[in-house]
Amino acid sequence: MYLTEVNHWDNVKKQIRFKLSVFSGLFTTLVFIQLFAMFISFQGTGSSGTTRGVFNLNISMITGDIIFFFTVAWMIAVTVGIIRTSTIDMDHTFVSSRTTSHLANGGFLVIVSFIATITTVMAEFTLKASYYLIFGSESVAIIEAYTFFETIISVLVIFMYLLFAGAFTYFIWHLASIHILLKVIIPVVLFGLFMISFATPISKVASFYFLENNLLLFIIKITLTSAFLFGATIFYTASREVKK
């Protein structure tokens, strides 16, 4: 008699394809969210003005910041969605372990992050081009030119931010599931740290990640931290029994 050994990596790939099929509607939601963010961005993400005599000058900055923040919020919501109880039950249609389930979720979040990155960059380009076409060249004082290299950098940075948002949310959500009180304590603590971040060492942690000027170091920091968060999640959930 022969024992059939499950190929875990094949199982991971099957689960990723399955999740992409089941959650395909999320990308439609992403498009609508980014369209809404573009509409808001037409008002400008920042402004300044000056008055001299009878002349009044108002300057508005048209950037993709709002689109980016809306996309990060969408990424957090997607991460929570794939680890809900109803979603976890879908993994058990495959012969899998807790580890393969986490790896499949991680692979899914990587793919989702990349797709969301591309749509974010395209949305920002569309926003600026639309503003120029609608309001005319006379309303635009300065046009920021993009080179191919700068576009690649934007793609890498946005992808890293989205991946980090997904990994951090994934870790925190599983950490909170250990005990019911943690579901209350962790959000309160995180909110408190956010509110006083500029007066605490938390600001130094944020600067360590998000104010890094060296692109390579930034990518290394985010990649290693994201991998650590997923690894920690796998470690402390390894003892949980997978439903058959």
What does this protein look like?
- The chain is mainly alpha-helical and 244 residues long.
- It has one domain.
- 70% of the residues lie in helices and 6% in strands.
- The protein is built from nine helices and two strands, in the order ααββααααααα.
- The chain has a two-stranded antiparallel sheet with strand order 1-2.
- The longest helix has 38 residues.
- It starts with 7 loop residues before the first helix and ends in a 7-residue tail after the last helix.
- The N terminus is likely disordered.
Quick overview of this protein structure:
By secondary structure, the protein is mainly α. It contains 9 helices and 2 strands.
Strand content: 5-15%
Q: In what order do the strands lie side by side in the largest sheet?
A: 1-2
Unreliable sequence segments: 1-5
Could you give the order of the helices and strands?
HHEEHHHHHHH
| Rg value | 22 Å
Q: How many structural domains are formed by the residues?
A: 1
Helix content: 55-70%
Mean of pLDDT? 77
Question: What is the count of helical runs?
Answer: 9
How is the main sheet built?
2 strands, antiparallel
Count of distinct strands: 2
Structural class: mainly alpha
Described by the principal axes of the CA atoms, the overall outline is globular
Instruction: Kindly report how far apart the N and C termini lie.
Output: 23 Å
